[in-house]
Design brief:
The complex is a heterodimer of chains A (390) and B (288). Chain A is of the alpha/beta class. Chain A contains 11 helices and 16 strands. The mean pLDDT of chain A is 94. The longest helix of chain B is centred in the middle third of the chain and has 14 residues, at 123-136. The chains are: A alpha/beta (390), B alpha/beta (288).
Chain lengths: 390, 288
Amino acid sequence: MSEPGQRALFLGAGIHTCLGNGVEQNIRALQQPATPPGLHLNKITAEELQIPCKLLSQTPLEKPEERLYRAVNNVVEQALSEAQLTETQRSTMGLFVGSSSFDISVWEAAYQRELMVSKEAVALAQTSIALLADYVVDELGLRGEDYSFNTACTASANALTAAVTQVESGALEHALVLGVELYNEVSALGFEGLGLLTRSVMKPFDAARDGLVLGEGISALVIGRRPDSDKAHFYLRGAANLSDCFSISAANPDGSSIAAVMNQALVAADLREDQVDCLKVHGTASLSNDEAEAAGMHQVFAQLPTLCALKPYIGHTLGACGLNELILFYRAAEEGFLIANPGISAQPGELGVALNQQSMPIAQGNFMLNYFGFGGNNTSLLISNRLQDK
Amino acid sequence: MTVSIVDCGVYCENAADELPVLKQQVKESVGRDVRRIGRFIQLALIGAGRAATDLPANSAVYLSSGRGDMGAMVEVLDSIYRDRQSPRPLSFINTVSNAACFYVAQALGTEGASSFIGNRYFALEMALKSALLDLETKSIDSALVGAVDMVVAPAAVHRERLGLPAAALMAEGSHWLQLQRDPGDRPVLATLTDIATFPDREALQHWLSDGLDGSEWTLATGQYLAPEEAAQWQADTGLPALEYRSDIGHFDSQAGRALCRFLEDGGGGLVYLNRDPRGRYVAVILKK
């Protein structure tokens, strides 16, 4: 336990997406145009389906157990190495995992295998959404607390918020936040059944938007206090999470619930709307999300800030999108550029939303990142790298 | 700082192959029928509704579970792998654990934050700790915190999932607490004064030797403490035991039963202890 009051800084990050393994590969790829997804032939259902998805780079879709744990280990080590924690600091960290699916790909494979042997096979022969956290706890020898957040597309954003609260309150010195989303049949067939998938590049807010692409992504972020640091670290300046009781599958289309969560995040960050330098949209490119999100942004901002989207690059990584997109956004900013979406929502269409078209330089600033999920779960984060606010 | 517990809600029943129909209890608890929901969500609504007296509209909902909505997930997996069909849209959406949070928030008219927090052995304890911190740091004023565990029939298969012996008694549980940072003039059942975790037994022992005042304390030992270790804590602390488990079958989050039993029947203060198989410990302190 230590003294509260200091900011929890982003000390080290790791990431593996379709763009590459490691921060450097991902940031380099973000400076190239977004590409369409691959098609995964699903032979499990009676009708063969081609599922558009963006899989982890250099990671074939085979041996689910090895695939998940190897990728998680690798990304966690990237973050821990960069954070340069001591062994003691590592062992006392808290662990905050956010995911929609956790290790379900492992249990799917096990069930499929066992059904081939016996029709008496049991689905979920042993399961808990916390088993993935248990694995990381054992792998790292953690003695701190672990939390597994399952709030659909806001899961890892909410995990980050909870971790920051614990560190800034003094309850923890450091925390490891982990976002995980790998291909699984429940998500793939579920979204296919909802008619939400597209085979093209995702085009949030664009008149030609026609759905989302499922993406795989694993990311890790180490946060902690480092009062002697002379570097302008990013940190979470404020956040809000609110329930939206309009519908279990969509935000209120009038934008009121989305505006409410953004306004509450601004209050938490002690910022006015005109102090937001850039906003990363949730942007699922579905008709209902983009309509509600656009309406919400127009209610909060008299003039919209510069907007960018990350899902066109990495797909919708569901419960991991909170952390995946935050890491890509802030590391691009640290490299000095703001992400662009050339050719997507180049002009404000009927929703009145245009995305940034050209990669532009940025330095210090306040940045809003929004996430909205099934189950009426809306989260808005405000991150900053302004030294004077630390 | 402490927060006040102003209400608690309980559903806790032994369960076997013939699971009781819950529709009427849902209606009685939240005041209306809630359609197209599965058993896990029904259990959540029953417990949450019973803890929601005068619940403020800005309350946050924290739901936890050892294993989550297994019923929804088993249905979807069977649809895919046994029937070779895509899951039905609503069945798929209900596999997100926070679907239960949505129905609780909608039924009780809350628009605050909501979260589903899983932990294999300390499910309710970790949700309570999150809520306590959020209340202490003033990001919320009011919280409804619960743990829900369900049985998926047939019972024999469910025992297998839980790793229980063939004759083991099982139960379903839904235990909820309503917490307030400032209860005003509302009656207070107890105060939640601390939730602390420890990397090992020695750290917990040290904390206990420093932490308890001269109140009349009762000790509740958690379900994942081996009987010998529970007895040892009883002997070491010299505190009388809170009995809350002898009449109920296994479910994953029995911490809720201990806390609610103390709120209903106990006096003085409660020290609740639990441990996980890795030797990490948690302590929850309530005072009346």
